[in-house]
Amino acid sequence: MSIVVRSHVARDFLQSSAYFNTVPKIVWEYVSNSLDNPHGNQPVHCRVQVGGGRLTIEDDGRGMSRHDLERFFTMHGENAQRAEGKTVRGRFGTGKSAAFGMASALRVTSVKNGRRNSVQLRRSDIEAAKDGEPFAVTELVREEPTADPPGTKIEIEGLTTKAGDVLQTKSYVERRLGRYRQGHQIVINNHIAEFEEPAFVDERTFELDSGPLASVGPITLMIR
Prior knowledge:
Elements: H1 9-17, H2 23-35, E1 45-51, E2 54-59, H3 66-72, H4 80-83, E3 105-112, E4 115-122, H5 123-127, E5 138-145, E6 151-157, H6 163-175, E7 185-188, E8 191-192, E9 204-208, E10 219-223
Parallel strand pairs: 1-7
Antiparallel strand pairs: 1-2, 2-6, 3-4, 3-6, 4-5, 7-8, 9-10
Helix pairs in contact: 2-6
């Protein structure tokens, strides 16, 4: 019998979630997923609610079909946006485990192409999985016809939230909005998040008017 590499899927899943050990990290994981998946070329509007032992992240992005949800829950799967040649943040698809860094349940409801799908995963289901075997995600709504616009709602339950989590989440998200300044809007507990530029001690400006880029016209390079 050959020696092969084996993996305990449930243990891998929970180990991947260990990085997401604060509310801000969890929120940013799902918010950045929303911003990376706009509906067409439209800006994404994302509303975040933190408190009461739960998190809700809701967007008006491209949404996910049932097939997309299946791919979403594939560990280390290929990022669909990157496969299309788009620049996105996600790498190996470990974000679906983010909720379980602190919480006990994750519910994903999404609308795409006039169909609604909703699924739920609980920590108890993961921990009960047998060694080396996949574990099922509970389907709450399957291919339900709807006139609602596309978008995705993430609901995370069973975590301990503190008053300070709201302020920390606002600051954490705003520091990371630098590459997402295309009109997207993120609202966190009724606060509109705005890019928070990091402090700098010096600024240098260079005018580039020669070399390989000269044909496109004058270019200004600013280094802070």
